[in-house]
Design a protein that fits this description.
The structure is a homodimer of 135-residue chains.
Chain A (H helix, E strand, L loop, with lengths): L6 E3 L2 E10 L5 E7 L1 H10 L3 E4 L4 E4 L8 E8 L5 E8 L14 E3 L15 E3 L7 H4 L1
Parallel strand pairs in A: 2-7
Antiparallel strand pairs in A: 1-2, 2-3, 4-5, 6-7, 8-9
């Protein structure tokens, strides 16, 4: 019964990680973790992820200071995904929103997902900061 | 501004999908979607995913009847992940729990994730049905 780093992306074996606000259950972001990122998260109590594009481990908030203090880690039935229940310092999204999921698809429009237009996407959250002030 | 099926797993271009209870915000499961799965989900209002192991689209609940009625679809900043806010019929997990995330890691133990023992993992949810009665 071990964590199953089953998803291989760009040559790295990963699990899906979901960060969730530990009080409201709002989903903040999703990213990937290799075994080293998960171990560092457990050791330090702060969320570390694996960047599939930059191919390195990153501490969430390393440039913004918007770290995530991990309160609890849940694992799923297949042991290939984890939820980090976190206290989010600042905001999770580099675009200035508390959650990266700050937009919804207007599914009533039956949008063409390969060619979305402005009416197909709606911002549903409030912007908390201007990214240019932080990064 | 289009959905970015950026994660290639086993040769298929995918986004991460997270199913979340639309009333309580409990996270039910995570899986992947290719463009066809997302389109079918939008068209039908029921959650379809891409199975990276079986390499085919599947309707959540196709064998159990435990379908997910999609109330809302959120997209993230990078357009490479979606949240399905769903009304879950029955239970999401094939092991008989409402959510696939029915266990937590006892991080206080500083568990070795490559060699977990029984004390490292704790069931935190109630079993709703016996899988043998359903599948």
């Amino acid at each position: 019964m071990n964590i199953n780093f089953r998803h291989e992306i760009n040559g790295e074996k990963l699990v899906t990680a979901i960060a969730q606000d530990y009080e409201t259950n709002e989903i903040l972001m999703t990213a990937n973790m290799n075994s080293k990122a998960l171990n560092k998260t457990i050791e330090t109590g702060k969320a570390y992820y694996w960047s599939t594009s930059r191919k390195r481990i990153w501490l969430k908030g390393e440039s913004s200071g918007h770290t995530q203090e991990v309160q609890e880690i849940l694992v799923d039935c297949d042991m290939d995904a984890v939820i980090l229940k976190v206290k989010q310092n600042g905001a999770a999204c580099h675009k200035g929103y508390y959650s990266c999921f700050f937009r919804k698809l207007n599914t009533n429009n039956k949008p063409n997902i390969m060619n979305l237009n402005n009416e197909d996407i709606e911002v549903i959250s409030e912007k908390l900061f201007n990214p240019e002030d932080i990064y």
